[in-house]
């Protein structure tokens, strides 16, 4: 039967082919000694470099190269804590989180803890606390259940662990959804465009409305800075006392309002009123009134003969 030699790429018919001749094996070439110089990149262009050290190709591993034991460790799964590991073990085997088979989960969990305990004792301390909790729950499940006095069903020892797992899973899924949202600097960057501006600034156009508003503002400020000039007017009380006596001569009663002249200003009214009070003080006139709230009259004072 013909068979396919993938390495050579052709068919060979064993029935038609003659019997192969037996030849002695070819001599084995001696291995190059460690003192032999390493091939140069120029002399051996077909040989690929193992690495590059400071930009130079490296075709041979140095004899004194030290590789730490932990350098080649590969971690297939990275967990963020005991709950993350426990949730991973449950979901990987499609266990019902409300009915956890603690025997299998505890054995797998303790196996992982033993691995990290041999490598990193500080990291294993946090996981050992959860391991102790799993062993306690497993022990409580093996003990006989005590019936309560009020005929209520006893609480499942796994209830608190299930609650914590469900809460952690919700937070973890929410964090994954937040991580899938586009973030600035990771998924997109802000576009920045440099626009070269002219050295000569472009001044805006001024319309008639702007000029009108500016002119009104100047007028408004000018009204706030007005100057007032006050002139002094000399008024004599004695002179107005003589005017009042002349008005009262020949008349029996004169209304109070008739003595004053409002058209001459407030200063004249004040001086007239002061002159009236001075005349009353000197008993040269009388201020009379027929009844309460009646009009006020003035008359010259006279003595009985």
Evaluate the radius of gyration.
Answer: 59 Å
Task: Identify the overall geometry.
Answer: elongated
**Percent of residues in helical segments?**
25-40%
Output the helix-strand order: EEEEHHHHHHEHEE
Average pLDDT for all residues: 75
What does this protein look like?
- Among the domains are: 38-67, no CATH class; 78-143 and 156-177, no CATH class; 237-300, Arc Repressor Mutant, subunit A, CATH 1.10.10.
- The protein has helices at 82-92, 102-119, 121-142, 159-180, 208-223, 237-248, 266-281, and strands at 2-5, 10-13, 51-53, 56-58, 254-255, 285-289, 296-300.
- Helix 2 runs antiparallel to helix 3 and helix 6 (237-248) crosses helix 7 (266-281).
- Residues 1-46 have low confidence and may be disordered.
- A hairpin with a 4-residue loop joins strand 1 (2-5) and strand 2 (10-13).
- The strands form 3 sheets. The protein has a 3-stranded antiparallel sheet with strand order 5-7-6. Strands 1-2 form a two-stranded antiparallel sheet. Strands 3-4 form a two-stranded antiparallel sheet.
- With 305 residues, it is mainly α.
Features of this protein?
7 strands; disordered N terminus; Arc Repressor Mutant, subunit A; two-stranded antiparallel ribbon; 305 residues; three-stranded antiparallel β-sheet; mainly alpha; 7 helices; 9% strand
In short:
The protein is mainly α and 305 residues long. The protein has helices at 82-92, 102-119, 121-142, 159-180, 208-223, 237-248, 266-281, and strands spanning 2-5, 10-13, 51-53, 56-58, 254-255, 285-289, 296-300.
